[in-house]
Design brief:
This protein is an all-alpha fold. It has a domain of 179 residues: MetI-like fold (Orthogonal Bundle), CATH 1.10.3720.10. It is built from 14 helices and no strands. Helix 2 runs antiparallel to helix 14, helix 4 crosses helix 8 and helix 4 runs antiparallel to helix 11. The longest helix has 32 residues. It is flat. The chain starts with 17 loop residues before the first helix and ends in a 5-residue tail after the last helix.
Length: 299
Amino acid sequence: MATTTLNPPRTAPAPGTANGAGTHRRKKFLHWVGVHALAIAAALFFVLPFVFVFLTSVMSDQQALTSELWPHSWHWSNYATVWNTPGFLGWWKNSLLYAVLGTVFTVVSSTPVAYALAKFRFKGRRVAMILVISTMMLPPQVIVIPMYLVWAQQFHLSGSLWPLIIPMAFGDAYSIFLLRQFLLTIPNEYIESAKVDGCGELRTLLRVVVPMAKPGIAAVALFQFFYCWNDYFGPQIYASQNPAAWTLSYGLESFKSAHSVNWNITMAATLLVMAPVIIVFFFAQKAFVEGVTLTGVKG
C-alpha cells in the first residue's frame, strides 16, 4: 500500500528572526519608494541636467557631447581656463556688485513701504496697494525706451549698471507685496506694546518688526539676488556697448559664441555662473521656504 507524505505548511518567518527582519525592511523600503515615487522622479528631473553639465565640463574636447556620458579622464583645468579668460573675472565682479547692491537697496527701500501698507490706517491705503500691485502687471519692455533715454541723455549713465541699480533704492512692487503679506501675520499687540513703551514708528520698525520679519525679508532678498544675478535683459540694454560693465549672464553669451566648438569649456563656464546661486540657496533655504510659506497666510 503506497503511502503519501504531506509537506508541512510553510509559516511566515517570525518578526524577530533574520529572515523576518529582512522582509520587514524590504517592505518598508518599497513602501517608502511608493510614497515618494513622484518626489524622486521630480528630483531626478531637476538634478540630472546639473549632473550632465558637470560631467561634460570635466571632459576633453574630443569626448564632449559624444554618446559617452562618463569622462575618460577628469580635466579640472577647464575651470582654470574659464577663470583666466580675459574679462571673466570682471564679469564676476560686476554681477556681484549688481546683485548685492540691488538686493540691499530693494530690501531697505521696500520694508518701510510694506510696513506702512500692512500696519498703518490712512485714507487711500487700499488705493495705494492697488497701485503697487498694478505696477507688477506692467512689462519692463513697455517703458524701456523712455527709461533708456532718461538715463542716457539726462544722467549720461549708459554703458554702466547704475541705471539698473539706482531704481532699486526706490522700492520694488513685488518685494513690497511679499513683505506686506508677511507683515500682516505679525500681531498688532507687539507694535502697540512698543509704542506704549515710547518707541516711535521708525524705532518700532527697526527693533520689533524687522527682527520678527526676518524670514520674509530673507525670502525677498533671495528673490532679488537671484533676479539680479540672472538678469540678461537689463545689462543688454544699458551695458552692451561697454564690455567692462558686462555681467556674467550677458558675458556668457559672448563666451559661448567664442567657444562654440569647445562644449566642455562652455559647460564649465555655465557651472561657474550657476554656482553662487546654488550655494546661496542651500545656505538660506530654510529661511526662504519659511518666508514664502508665511507670505500667503493673510490677504
